[in-house]
Specification:
Blueprint: E1 2-6, E2 18-22, E3 43-44, E4 50-51, H1 66-76, E5 89-92, H2 103-109, E6 115-118, H3 126-133, H4 136-140, E7 159-161, E8 164-168, E9 174-176
Antiparallel strand pairs: 1-2, 3-4, 5-6, 7-8, 8-9
């Protein structure tokens, strides 16, 4: 079987000339599929040298440890701190950023005072969706710590829970506190 390929047209030619191209010529070689589970072979770079394929690595965990998760779930009773519905996940009061946080900042935002149990998932439903969908009201009520360059200690910023205003401490306790000035948690810290 022969295939046709286009060739450049000569000046003044009105029809497109086609020339036969046999199998096996450049671009039409039959290749065998790569088997699943096999590591990729080294690829040639621009200058012709080969580099080894990168090994696959596990994504690093930037969330709280299982022990911290247990403390927060015990503190909140496994219920959403805002409405009292069964909590589906832990939520960070201060955002972790696009790629997560490590080092000192990672320790700070993964401590019990910086975590809440909330109903819903991400920005789609429930109280978690409400918190992620707006900025001003969750900051005013203490559910979100602002990311404006000012580091606030989560132990000193109260949260308006379904039981009233409270401070969450790093030892896993909840301490009732008076309402902040003007009902704005941002003014309390």
């Amino acid at each position: 079987m022969t295939l046709q390929r286009r060739t450049p047209m000569a000046r003044g030619s009105s029809t497109l000339a086609r020339t036969p191209m046999n199998r096996g010529e450049k671009g039409l070689t039959v290749r065998t599929p790569i088997a699943r589970g096999k590591p990729l072979e080294a690829r040639a770079t621009v200058n012709g040298s080969a580099r080894p394929a990168k090994p696959r690595t596990r994504a690093r965990s930037t969330g709280p440890t299982p022990a911290v998760r247990a403390v927060v779930n015990a503190r909140d009773g496994g219920l959403c701190v805002r409405c009292g519905a069964p909590a589906s996940d832990l939520d960070h009061r201060q955002g972790r950023g696009a790629g997560g946080t490590s080092g000192e900042a990672g320790e700070r935002i993964n401590q019990p005072s910086a975590l809440l149990t909330m109903c819903g998932r991400g920005n789609t439903s429930g109280c978690h969706g409400w918190k992620e969908g707006s900025r001003d009201e969750p900051e005013r009520l203490g559910y979100r710590l602002p990311r404006n360059g000012i580091q606030r200690d989560p132990e000193r910023v109260p949260v308006l829970t379904r039981r009233g205003w409270a401070l969450f401490l790093n030892d896993g306790t909840r301490v009732p506190c008076p309402a902040p000035p003007d009902g704005d948690a941002r003014n309390a810290a």
